[in-house]
Specification:
The structure is a homodimer of 417-residue chains. Chain A is α/β, with parallel strands linked by helices. Chain A has two domains: 29-204 and 322-416, Alpha/Beta hydrolase fold, catalytic domain (Rossmann fold, 3-Layer(aba) Sandwich), CATH 3.40.50.1820; 206-315, Rna Polymerase Sigma Factor, Chain: A (Orthogonal Bundle). Chain A has helices at residues 151-164, 178-189, 208-222, 232-235, 240-254, 257-263, 286-301, 304-316, 327-330, 351-363, 387-404; strands at residues 32-33, 36-40, 44-45, 51-52, 55-62, 72-76, 88-89, 92-96, 103-104, 109-110, 115-119, 134-135, 140-141, 170-176, 194-200, 337-343, 368-373. The model of chain A is unreliable at 1-17 (pLDDT under 50). At the A-B interface, helix 3, helix 5, helix 6, helix 7 and helix 8 of A face helix 3, helix 5, helix 6, helix 7 and helix 8 of B. Chains A, B: Substrate binds at residues 247, 380. Chains A, B: The active site is at residues 177, 346, 379. Chains A, B: It comes from Pollutimonas thiosulfatoxidans. Chains A, B: Homodimer.
């Protein structure tokens, strides 16, 4: 890897508003990134029986696809993330990719060696075709008419994206949480196109409790009068209260009880005189302030129909369903090697859920590497910087690279260095 | 205990509508019960600094107060329960007391030996003065003007109730969940009036996660346009959507993940042809149907202001707060003996929370009996019939009775028989 230099791009940009500070590219960053939008005009037949006539995918790529086209890694996103996996958004220097600590030159997923694709899923709200997009049949936003999607539909759409890039087989398909479900689905539905499948903090299917929390979120959104049956775009409204409550409940499930205790405990927020309570329904505790802020912020940028759609896709995911509930049978034709990672305090998708996948793979004699990281941060741990976790992933990618004969990793950087 | 006879009360009641079936009193039931309403005209000074000018308490009693007045047991209720602890409601034969499996002749809390009082807390919505009651100052429902209450306020109101009955000292004060907090608070604030303190599935204070879930419920209610800032009575509305979502999220926290898996799993509700999904936001899974039903039912009978108030009282409870967070110091003057019970799969108030109380009591050299019941039902387990759990409670009450020189329990009945 070349010596890292701090680049001030402000001097190369005309008419930079004075309040925008010069952007400093930190070591290990892929730098300033911009999405590309790729149009697919062929109809996409969906699991539901509906057909999406055409769609666009928002995509970011990092690193270079090599001549053999065998160094490509697909990163699949979870509920509220996007194609912006790594680097600094050209439009907004504060918008750092959601897995920037994982993906970059010298990082666990080393963009000096791998060509990494981040893709926003259909139905999402960050640039790919979704419920807020224009329905070509009506000239109006799709709204409630946007078709329901499944993880398998996303994989089909991503497979066309691979074709677009001329990638026959990914070195790895990787994701956390819902992203891990997509990686798993890739290995099942396109077995010959996945070299390694990396499934982090995920599950082979939602539990009743998981579905229950999703349903709470959906009822909250749907019963908000500003939802207008999903066609709120035309009304100029946003079901922000419902979306905010949905996010709050979701957020609690991403954190561990212990982590919340450590972060917030029972600390008061702006107490009354003598540290007293206000004895009302305003904010009394830090944790309330935090959750309200998270909920309100989310409701300003996330599309409510997308929230419904993605929680439903989560509910539906269950590759064992067409095999009488037998996950091992569902996995019988996979050809990928696997890395699974779970986190000890993740109560949304606890380690036991990953164990189910590991057992089913072992039953099929697939090579599996499994790491259970003792981390206090609950489900969110998969997004956080943790040296042991990143070392596991980096070590696994070194093995992938060695297997493909890719160049050695630069030893001057990286979490193992 | 007298031989149980099946009593058909329908013949003794004039003009019974033909659709009401004769009521069968099952063995161990306290029988047909009716509440009494006891008015307290002295103002009640509250923790918040506000004053409740007067109030009424809805009360049920079972068994007989003995001449020594030393066999009284106070049962404190949790979030959504009432004074109707045991027996069959005279107005509605289907309305069985919420702890009927625990309280009755020959049961763990044996009404052949103990005089048991069930009391509805101020601020609730089952007969005691609450936000839906008429504010004497305005002639209108209190609504948002109803004062905030704390566990300590409830205890003060209950102490006046004890005075009313001429009870100087309770044989036991007992409760589960929020009811357990009241029992604990009784032992701290009226140490000389509590012989035994029985704290089941409870905690010395809510965690950040607990407060977070309460806040989700409150935001859901408060942001429902039918809430009208708490003064919905005047508008003829009920914030039923908000209340329903609040109940749904609460309900999930009462059940264990495993219990939900066993009860619902991923079973579909009314699937489409060939067992397919409907691919929409209607009910797909049994768990959704169940939670929606629970939420909707709750919203037809529970007052939204009461839900806010009681969740807030839960948040505030922390007897260690005035002792620098030291629970042992908060408990230094208690005179009661203690029974604590927790349930292995209760993730709302897990066993570790009870351990905190046990440790603080032991630090004060108080006699403590502690039982951790290995039960699959999560927090709800404290309400359910479980022979080991009930045997622990019954054994403890036998000890209380022996200590007080009460008559022996009839050996022909009871969970230990």
């Amino acid at each position: 890897m070349a010596e890292l230099s701090v680049t001030d791009i402000s001097s190369s940009l005309p008419a930079v508003p004075s309040e925008i500070a010069p952007v400093t590219i930190p070591p290990g960053s892929v730098g300033i990134v911009s999405p590309q939008y790729i149009a697919f005009d062929q109809p996409l037949a969906l699991t539901s029986g509906q057909v999406l006539p055409s769609y666009e995918l928002a995509v970011e790529t990092y690193g270079e696809l090599n001549a053999e086209r065998n160094n490509a890694v697909l990163i699949c996103h979870a509920l509220n993330a996007s194609h912006h996996v790594a680097g600094i958004c050209a439009d907004n220097p504060k918008d750092i990719g959601w897995w920037d600590n994982m993906v970059g030159p010298g990082k666990a997923v080393d963009t000096d060696r791998f060509f990494v694709i981040g893709v926003n899923n259909i139905g999402s709200c960050f640039g790919s075709t979704g419920p807020a997009s224009i329905n070509p049949a009506t000239g109006q936003p799709w709204g409630a008419a946007f078709p329901m999607l499944t993880v398998e539909d996303w994989v089909r759409a991503q497979a066309r994206l691979a074709d677009h890039f001329g990638i026959q087989k990914f070195a790895a398909v990787m994701g956390g949480s819902l992203g891990g479900m997509q990686a798993l689905s890739w290995a099942i539905t396109c077995p010959e196109r996945v070299g390694h499948c990396i499934v982090i903090a995920s599950t082979p299917r939602l539990s009743a409790q998981n579905i229950g929390f999703n349903e709470v979120a959906r009822r909250s959104i749907i019963s908000d009068p500003d939802f207008h049956g999903g066609d709120y775009y035309a009304q100029g409204t946003v079901p922000k209260h419902g979306l905010s409550v949905a996010r709050m409940v979701g957020h609690i499930t991403y954190l561990s009880d212990d982590d919340m205790a450590a972060k917030f405990g029972r600390a008061q927020r702006a107490p009354a005189d003598n540290g007293e309570f206000h004895y009302g329904y305003g904010v009394e505790f830090e944790v309330e302030s935090y959750l309200r802020y998270q909920g309100e912020k989310f409701s300003t940028y996330f599309d409510a129909n997308t929230y419904l759609l993605i929680t439903r896709a989560l509910d539906y995911f269950d590759p064992s369903r067409s095999h009488g509930g037998d996950l091992a049978r569902a996995l019988q034709h996979v050809q990928a090697d696997f890395l699974l990672v779970s986190f000890s305090t993740d109560w949304r998708f606890p380690p036991a859920r990953s164990h189910e996948i590991v057992r089913a793979l072992l039953k099929n004699k697939r090579p599996v590497t499994y790491a259970e990281i003792d981390a206090p941060h609950g489900h969110d741990a998969f997004l956080l910087d943790d040296a042991r976790y990143h070392a596991v992933v980096q070590g696994y990618y070194d093995r992938i690279a060695a297997g493909l004969g890719l160049p050695e990793r630069q030893q001057t950087s990286g979490v193992l260095a």
